[in-house]
């Protein structure tokens, strides 16, 4: 990298050879929550191990019987048990005398702040739960949530859990169409939303997207709208209710509804290799256990920590590590509404200093964005409160790991590189701080109880020093229970590639010391700024435009976002390529899916490289996008196509 803020550092170049290791600091290890004997305990008897954790972590209304019923690929954990997830995250802490402990320090982008104690959270959750009951929501129903990062978002999720309803949170950056698809798939009865939120110093409306979606979502009977911006918005009489009215008028008391362990807690939609998003099903006890236990072990959570996961709650990271895991552990957390560069690039470091953040969990794409701005921004603030750092969402390159270690962690704190997925519910591969010696860029080892392996194309475990496919060979408590309404797609997607194993879709290698290095997705799913976006969804959105005949999309490696979307577009006859049309097509994708899916590069081409059977050869498109020399072209139906396309590269860039 040539950026002047990042001087050439030969000593780091050497580290890229994976040679440097970071053993635990003995002082940290002496106080660590995790201990090395957990691995052996879990391997001796995984079910007994999880049963013991489930006793410790969860307050049960009815004890469970069978630990795990496993009829591949369908698992049921802690069968016969009854619990309430919101009770575990809020009420029990207040009962134990922690009512005055802060649950969230919330920071709005314009600088407004709110502090919610566990007693505040209990009151708000109960009122919101009573409001949902008043609007007709009952145990087993689905509630859609489409909100900015404001405290009412976790309150709404917990309100659902309190009455045994399932939520489906749709990231606020998604379009009206994406919202409508998810509402319809989930058949949600109520939508909780807001007039809008703040982003990069501007008001960003949400309710108008919601209104557009609601034109095609007959299952929605009511909405609850938080007044975040104070400018008013279009409200439909009888359907739309202001949060302040419908929640404000409710009683502070609401009894938790006991649910069975396998009651659906939430649905979260994620990209797959077809255009239709998958509704990933998570249930109650196993999920809560996974989130709570890993949160305490991997982040070494202590009662006086101030923990900040800087993700958006619209993604699984926020579900597990802003809401359920931290709250189950009675954590004091920070929640920030806005962008990292508003008003300036030191916004996060100012927040760390103000609240004395001790644990920070973020994504490599954010770290690389900070690197690009230079170390002066963090250097302006006292970050000495930080005692542990986490990374998630994509492989972290060693250079970013080392920058994070030095400039944010003061070269003194452990970094946990945590691998997991929407489907896994909680972290599965990660160092245990105080136990594991880390290597920059490696997620190290599976957590205790997790049977992860790297296999070859035939499903055989590879030896150290080799690469292959990452699989999981044993069920785990927080695993997805399926794809909503589509058991066959669940089996096909995750359990058919390697019989008897869960295939995560990621490539991985195991080095000579047995450390795991995640190598990214092997399917047609891109990882853009830590978000999974399938190529086919973007292609469908492009072809949806009246001037487009055909489109092919690939991920192009990007210094900051990991991958950037590169679209190859064939226009219909009579349509002329132009920069204006390229802009229009990009906006069209943003409109149909959301701004995160807007292609960065767009190239008009008369044809696409195809095999004789008509399959687009993405591998070649990737080579073209990356400006590499082409791999094997012998299976191409028409070899001149790639030359034509390459002559045009440069295309238009965003
Ligand atoms: C995919 C899951 C897990 C919450 C955020 C994303 C990639 C995730 C790592 C990591 C290398 C990682 C994988 C995975 N990924 N964490 N520490 N190292 N890759 O959730 O949207 O379900 O995406 O993110 O490719 O399959 P998701």
Your description of this structure?
The model is unreliable at 1-17 (pLDDT under 50). α7 links the parallel β6 and β7. With 654 residues, the protein is α/β, with parallel strands linked by helices. The protein has a domain at 525-653: 2-Layer Sandwich (GMP Synthetase, Chain A, domain 3). It starts with 9 loop residues before the first helix and ends with a strand. Helix content is 32%, strand content 23%. The chain has an 8-stranded mixed β-sheet with strand order 12-11-8-6-7-14-15-23, with helices on both faces. The structure holds 5'-O-[(S)-butoxy(hydroxy)phosphoryl]adenosine (WT7). 5'-O-[(S)-butoxy(hydroxy)phosphoryl]adenosine binds at residues 270, 316-317, 392-395, 417-422, 443, 504-506, 518, 520-521, 527, 530-532.
Give the mean pLDDT.
92
Shape: globular
> Which CATH class of the domain at 525-653 applies here?
Alpha Beta
CATH topology of the domain at 525-653: GMP Synthetase, Chain A, domain 3
Instruction: Output the strand order for the largest sheet.
Output: 12-11-8-6-7-14-15-23
Structural class of the helices, strands and pairings? alpha/beta
Bound molecules: 5'-O-[(S)-butoxy(hydroxy)phosphoryl]adenosine
User: How many strands appear in the DSSP assignment?
Assistant: 31
Let me know the CATH homologous superfamily of the domain at 525-653: ANL, C-terminal domain
Could you list the spans in which at least 5 consecutive residues all have pLDDT below 50? 1-17
- DSSP helix count? 21
- CATH architectural name of the domain at 525-653: 2-Layer Sandwich
Question: What level of helicity do the residues show?
Answer: 25-40%
Q: Strand-residue fraction? A: 15-25%
Round the Cα radius of gyration to an integer and report it.
24 Å
Main beta sheet? 8 strands, mixed
Q: How far is the N terminus from the C terminus?
A: 21 Å
């Amino acid at each position: 990298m040539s950026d002047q803020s990042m001087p050439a550092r030969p000593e780091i170049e050497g580290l890229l050879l994976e040679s440097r290791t970071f053993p635990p600091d003995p002082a940290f290890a002496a106080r660590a929550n995790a201990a090395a004997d957990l691995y052996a305990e879990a391997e001796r008897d995984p079910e007994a191990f999880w049963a013991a954790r489930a006793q410790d972590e969860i307050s049960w209304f009815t004890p469970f019987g069978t630990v795990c019923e496993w009829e591949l690929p369908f698992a049921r954990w802690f069968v016969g048990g009854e619990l309430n997830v919101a009770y575990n995250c809020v009420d029990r802490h207040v009962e134990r005398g922690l009512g005055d402990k802060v649950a969230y320090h919330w920071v709005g982008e314009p600088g407004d702040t709110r502090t919610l104690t566990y007693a505040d959270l209990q009151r708000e959750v109960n009122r919101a739960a009573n409001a949902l009951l008043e609007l007709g929501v009952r145990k087993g129903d689905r509630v859609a949530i489409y909100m900015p990062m404001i405290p009412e978002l976790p309150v709404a999720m917990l309100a659902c859990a309190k009455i045994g309803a399932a939520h489906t949170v749709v990231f606020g950056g998604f379009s009206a169409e994406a919202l409508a698809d998810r509402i319809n798939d989930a058949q949600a009865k109520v939508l909780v939303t807001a007039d809008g939120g703040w982003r990069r110093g501007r008001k960003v409306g949400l309710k108008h997207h919601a209104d557009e979606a609601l034109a095609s979502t007959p299952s929605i009977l009511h909405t609850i709208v938080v007044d975040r911006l104070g400018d008013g918005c279009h409200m439909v009489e009888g359907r739309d209710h202001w949060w302040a009215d419908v929640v404000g008028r409710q009683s502070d008391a609401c009894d938790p509804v006991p649910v069975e362990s396998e009651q659906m807690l939430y649905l979260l939609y994620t990209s797959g290799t077809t255009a239709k998003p998958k509704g990933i099903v998570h249930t109650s006890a196993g999920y809560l256990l996974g989130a709570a236990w890993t949160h305490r072990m991997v982040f070494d959570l202590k009662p006086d920590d101030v923990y900040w996961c800087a993700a958006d709650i619209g993604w699984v990271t926020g579900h597990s590590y802003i809401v359920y895991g931290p709250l189950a552990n009675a954590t004091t957390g920070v929640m920030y509404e806005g962008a990292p560069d508003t008003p300036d690039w030191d916004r996060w470091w100012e927040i760390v200093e103000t609240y004395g953040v001790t644990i920070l969990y973020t994504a490599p794409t954010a770290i690389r964005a900070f690197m690009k701005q230079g170390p002066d921004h963090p250097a302006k603030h006292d970050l000495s409160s930080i005692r542990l750092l986490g990374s998630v969402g994509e492989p972290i390159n060693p250079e970013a790991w080392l920058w994070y270690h030095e400039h944010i962690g003061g070269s003194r704190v452990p970094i946990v590189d945590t691998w997991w997925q929407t489907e896994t519910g909680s972290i599965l591969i990660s160092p245990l701080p105080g136990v594991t010696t880390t290597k920059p860029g490696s997620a190290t080892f599976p957590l205790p109880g997790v049977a992860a392996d790297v296999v070859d194309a035939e499903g055989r475990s590879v030896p150290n020093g080799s690469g292959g496919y990452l699989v999981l060979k044993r069920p785990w408590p927080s695993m997805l229970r399926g794809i909503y309404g589509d058991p066959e797609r669940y089996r096909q997607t995750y359990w058919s590639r390697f019989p008897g194993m869960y295939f995560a879709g990621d490539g991985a290698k195991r080095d000579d010391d047995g450390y795991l290095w995640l190598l990214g997705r092997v399917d047609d799913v891109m990882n853009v700024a830590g978000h999974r976006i399938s190529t086919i969804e973007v292609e469908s959105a492009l072809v949806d435009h009246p001037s487009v005949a055909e489109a092919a999309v690939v991920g192009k490696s990007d210094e900051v976002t990991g991958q950037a979307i590169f679209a190859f577009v064939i226009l219909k006859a009579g349509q002329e390529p132009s920069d204006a049309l390229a802009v229009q097509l990009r906006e069209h994708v943003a409109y149909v899916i959301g701004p995160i899916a807007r292609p960065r590069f767009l190239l008009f081409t008369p044809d696409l490289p195809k095999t004789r059977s008509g399959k687009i050869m993405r591998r070649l498109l990737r080579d073209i996008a990356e400006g590499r020399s082409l791999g094997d072209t012998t299976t191409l139906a028409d070899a001149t196509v790639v030359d034509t396309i390459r002559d045009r590269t440069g295309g238009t860039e965003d």
